[in-house]
Amino acid sequence: MIPTKSVPEVLHRARELVTPALQRAVRRLSPELRPLAEYHMGWCDADGCPTGSDGGKGIRPALAVLSAEAVGAPGATGVPGAVAVELVHNFSLIHDDVVDEDTERRHRPTVWALFGVGRAVIVGDALVALAQQVVLEPFEAYALDDGARALAGAEQGPATTCVAGVTTFGLAAGARAARCIADATAAMIAGQALDMAFESVSVVDVAGCLAMEAGKTGALLGCASAIGAVLGGADDRVVAALAAYGMELGLAFQAVDDLLGIWGDPAVTGKPAWSDLRQHKKTLPVAAALAESGPGAEELASLLACEHLEEAQIARAAHLVESCGGRQSATDEADRRLASALAALDQGGIVARAHAELADVARFVVEREH
Amino acid sequence: MIPTKSVPEVLHRARELVTPALQRAVRRLSPELRPLAEYHMGWCDADGCPTGSDGGKGIRPALAVLSAEAVGAPGATGVPGAVAVELVHNFSLIHDDVVDEDTERRHRPTVWALFGVGRAVIVGDALVALAQQVVLEPFEAYALDDGARALAGAEQGPATTCVAGVTTFGLAAGARAARCIADATAAMIAGQALDMAFESVSVVDVAGCLAMEAGKTGALLGCASAIGAVLGGADDRVVAALAAYGMELGLAFQAVDDLLGIWGDPAVTGKPAWSDLRQHKKTLPVAAALAESGPGAEELASLLACEHLEEAQIARAAHLVESCGGRQSATDEADRRLASALAALDQGGIVARAHAELADVARFVVEREH
To answer: Model confidence over B74-90: pLDDT tens digits?
Structure first.
């Protein structure tokens, strides 16, 4: 067994690599949009004054950096991919807040609440376009140097190299990474559309719930976990294994999130007890509980059909989700998906240290208090 | 002089090539989003019933097809680029209607007015991601055939070829086309952000106005005019000439649009006389008129500072824009930009017939009734 650094150290190392590049990318936005993006990222307050924060935990950037190292490339090779994934993730948060009319995120007003719907839509759009530019541009460094360009274009040549201190990669790697980002973005949007459609139906089945979560959460984690390897010029087999690891990890993460949304400790989650039930969210434990036949599931369905629930009714609904097996089912789902993610890493060809660190990150993500 | 087909014939030919591919692309959207996109495109009504319409004039698809032919490639080579450009254009219309709170477009309710802001935001997002997929996917056909893939990846090899009846292009062409789309999308969004910022200032200068129009209109026409050549594997010099043609054409088009926005025939434009002045739009003729010193410009500025204008005041403002030289200035701008567009075509390396047809399309676009 390879001794790994602790997960917080891995996350810290990736943040040190990725945050400066992410901040450089955001500085390229037009002067009208940059302050909104910097506010959303948590780097600045509403007046544009720096907050000193460097953003969240950084799971996605860590996955992108580790996925480059997983195929023997330096972690820096994964950085444009990490930046693109973070830009797409934040685009989706900004637009989701508009769609859901949420006024707060991480205890601060959302972008649309502060700057208006129009500007929130536009700055989200700008982040998606920027994400594509970030993965497609590095190879342009070669345009200045025909020799290096020929090298980069050659299918058999090294996928990455260093010109004038800038790590760049070949045309093929850039195109594959852009494809990876576009596909994940499309899947994420389809997942969001499905989630919106769920609002107008009373019952969602487990398969529908998983399909929605695969799109909304799995696709981008799959992309994050593969894009470093893509930029490192890995073959399709290793890329597919890493993407499967990320997708399974995303589904495990989402199952845990669904559990915390009902039974999470309010002191930790910052949300009231049984939060998702209050909001009538159609999550995995609820879908699994409703799939049971019997009086418990029937009582749950009729409770959830009420527009407004009293405190005692919410507590009763939470009890019913559990007694109908919804809590156990989601817990099993999380465990099964974590096992699948770890199994995907064993498909061979992954550097031992990165393998161990990816496994640690997966356990860390899934084994949050639940 | 090469005898060219009439412009309507050129537009028709491009539409015949592009519309089926565009419809196929839109059919890939998730079932929740596809009806919204098909409604917006004019192909279906609000209930999803086909209208029999194939959309607008199709200037952008024609430019993309002609730009492939301009470098000796078949027009079909430009089709994925034409589809991507149309998807980006329609994304921007859907989001602009949300931002501007416009309830009608082409005499029909806008997407957000019919389906809500949230769904309009999401379907716009889906079109951008789809645009990137459309230009990045064709080379994947090679993945099934290693020999063809090696050929496509080779920098010196033919840029396009035909595998199993599908015209595909090399990795390099796909990456360059994706870059072309991402850059144009980013510039268009920056132009939209600038336009929104203009709403909160009383006066915009000519340079600001042109910068906004270069982003909002020029960038995507530049992309449309170059992307066929990019997919056809043209060298950077020809691509740059075609992109310059499209950018200049976009600025000429916008100058004409600004003229029609004030002096267009209401019977033709479908808008009331002096429409842009009613809405206090900061367009080129107004910016040019305000740049004059003298009592006329001062009177115009004080009129435009009024929140509500009576009919006689609007007529007076239109008169002042003209007497201060704003109408002439915008007319000169349109002529100058058209001349620049035509000059860009002369930079060499463009196939004679496509050269003549591109010139005809430019004259057709600019010489609308003004």
So the answer is: 999 999 999 999 999 99
Q: Residue B269: pLDDT band by 50, 70, 90 thresholds? A: confident
CB contact under 8 A, B175 and A139: yes
Give the tens place of pLDDT for each residue, A190-220. Answer: 999 999 999 888 889 999 999 999 999 999 9
Backbone angles phi, psi at B163, to 5 degrees: -115, 125
pLDDT recorded at residue A141: 40
Could you tell me where the DSSP H helices lie in chain B? 7-26, 34-40, 59-69, 79-100, 111-115, 117-136, 146-153, 171-198, 206-213, 219-231, 236-263, 266-269, 275-278, 284-291, 295-304, 311-323, 326-345, 352-366
B89 vs A contacts (CB less than 8 Å): none
Look up the ipTM and state it: 0.90
Contact assignment for A150 to B155 by CB distance below 8 Å: yes
- Among A132, A146, A183, which would you mutate to test the B interface (most chain B Cβ atoms within 10 Å of its Cβ)? A132
Is the Cβ–Cβ distance between A330 and A259 less than 8 Å? yes
| Residue contact A118–B196, C-beta within 8 A | yes
Lowest mean per-residue pLDDT among A172-176, B41-45, B248-252: A172-176
Query: In chain B, what residues touch A117 (CB-CB under 8 Å)?
Result: 98-99, 117
pLDDT tens readout for residues A299-328 = 999 999 888 889 999 999 999 999 999 999
Tokens at residue B155, please? 């920098």
A151: phi then psi, degrees, rounded to nearest 5: -60, -45
DSSP per-residue codes, A157-182:
S-SEEEETTEEEE-HHHHHHHHHHHH
Chain B closest-CA separation from residue A58 CA (Å):
24
Q: Which long-range contacts (CB under 8 A, 24 or more apart) does A192-197 make?
A: A192/A92, A192/A95, A192/A96, A192/A99, A192/A216, A192/B122, A193/B30, A193/B32, A193/B33, A193/B119, A193/B122, A193/B123, A193/B126, A194/B30, A194/B32, A196/A99, A196/B32, A196/B118, A196/B119, A196/B122, A197/B32
Question: What are the phi and psi torsion angles at A162 (to 5°)?
Answer: -125, 115
Task: Please answer yes or no on whether A132 and B172 come within 8 Å at the CB atom.
Answer: no
Crossing angle for the helix pair A146-153 and A171-198, nearest 10 degrees?
Answer: 60
Rounded to whole angstroms, how far apart are CA atoms B131 and A353? 38
- Return the number of other C-beta atoms located less than 10 Å from residue A7's C-beta: 18
Residue A163: both structure tokens together: 């010109």
Beta carbons of B96 and B192 less than 8 angstroms apart? yes
Q: How many whole angstroms separate alpha carbon B23 and alpha carbon A116?
A: 34
CB pairs under 8 A between A and B: 165
For tokens 């080579």, what's the residue?
A: B77
Nearest CA in chain B to A174: B175
Which residue reads 């649309």 in tokens?
A: A112
pLDDT band at B213 (very low <50, low <70, confident <90, very high): very high
Rounded CA Rg of chain B: 22
In Å, how far is A267's CA from the nearest CA of chain B? 31
Percentage of chain A modeled with pLDDT above 90: 75
pLDDT tens-digit series, residues A326-353: 999 999 999 999 999 999 999 978 999 9
B contacts of A130 (beta carbons < 8 Å): 186
